[in-house]
Amino acid sequence: MKKELILFGFTLLAACGVQSCSSSATKPQAPVVAAEEENADPSRILVFSKTSGFYHESIPDGIAAIQKLGNENNVVVDTTKNAAYFNPDSLRNYDAVVFLSTTQDVLNAQQEEAFMKYIQSGGGYAGIHAAADTEYDWPWYNKLVGAYFLSHPKQQKATVRVNNKSHASTSHLPDNWEIFDELYNYKNINPDVNVLATLDESTYQGGENGENHPIIWYHEFDGGRAFYTGLGHTKESYSNPVFLQHMWGGINYAMGQK
Q1: How far apart are CA 142 and CA 135, in angstroms?
Q2: Could you say which residues of the chain have pLDDT below 50?
Q3: Fewest C-beta in 10 Å: which of 106, 117, 126, 169?
Q4: Does domain 5-255 have CATH number 3.40.640.10?
Q5: Domain ranges (residues) in the chain
Q6: What pLDDT is attached to residue 42?
């Protein structure tokens, strides 16, 4: 995806205003200059964390973790809660957009249209945890994210059965990955997603999807790429190197990287 980094700085200011947008540096323009000096065509992602429903206290931890991973991997990370980023001039600069525990209705009709066209033009999407608790009135988003949140029991330990290790998000995981998290049950599951891992409902209480309980998946969708992990509720997740490698592998897939 072509980057127009100089134009991007002006577009950001026009769309959002200096005070309403944030990035991995203090000033919105700074990552553009730094990136151009190091790499004429760096990868760039947008981390979007707007909430209209429940707010996850782990969101700042997730943002900090993704920024750190970006710095370590020469990926520019912009972060925002401002849906005004979802316009064609802005989105064209990103290899992937990460929905970090977004909740409920976060985009208006024009922003939905811009994001849909971004995906159709080859863009990438990575959804983390409550990204499935988002945009219930938008069937296209349901297919993109892969499922909608249905319910969850109390936070507890459970075993994730890793079914496919050929993906960057799961290649390092054990066959039976024991985790402590808020474990989602899902509805409206897209049958076309490629399931990478499932929850073993016999290892915890409150599962409602039965033997086929997907928790991590990916798929090519409507011209672009989509990855989702249902994990990442707790603040501790974002200091866990195993989870961080898992999340970053999914983001890398969304960016179109092998």
Answers
A1: 8
A2: 1-39
A3: 117
A4: no
A5: 5-255
A6: 83
